[in-house]
TrEMBL record:
The active site is at residue 102. GO terms for molecular function: catalytic activity. This is HIT family protein. InterPro entries: HINT, Histidine_triad_CS, Histidine_triad_HIT, HIT-like, HIT-like_sf. It holds the Pfam family HIT.
Length: 148
């Protein structure tokens, strides 16, 4: 089901124009209007799902199964691509600006292409005991993994 106020749902319905890269009954892939780098593509499920925390496993399996096909097509379209960031942001603190689950495929041409991600190194703050405690807390909250 689509949300009447969601910009991606409006794109799926054709109410807002987009440049489609791929579409079938389940997903739509289109160029991001910002084009962080040339070829920056968004992949969205056709059902309105807010974020990864609401994404059913079967839908996730289907959605993510399109990523290699799209990544390879984007790379084949431009021999200058040297890598690709594949990003899914969830929640405003994680830079999710449209609350419809989506995957960014951002081609990388060089390390000077106006895009960066910073992973802070805080390894000096965590010894094995602290890491084990974090892992155990996560393990205690795991649900049985669904099989696609």
């Amino acid at each position: 089901m689509l949300d009447e106020n969601c910009i991606f749902c409006k794109i799926i319905r054709g109410e807002i124009p987009s440049v489609t890269v791929f579409e079938d009954d389940h997903v739509k892939a289109f160029l991001d209007i910002s084009q962080t780098t040339p070829g920056h593509t968004l992949l969205v499920p056709k059902d309105h799902i807010e974020d990864i925390f609401h994404l059913p496993a079967a839908t996730a399996a289907r959605l993510f199964s399109y990523v290699p096909m799209l990544a390879n097509a984007i790379k084949a379209a431009n021999s200058g691509i040297k890598g690709m960031n594949i990003i899914n942001n969830n929640g405003e603190v994680a830079y999710q600006s449209v609350h419809h689950v989506h995957i960014h495929l951002i081609p990388r041409y060089s390390d000077q292409d106006d895009f960066n991600i910073h992973f802070g190194n805080h390894s000096d703050m965590y010894d094995t005991a602290a890491l084990t405690k974090i892992a155990l807390t996560i393990k205690e909250n795991l649900q049985e993994a669904p099989h696609a």
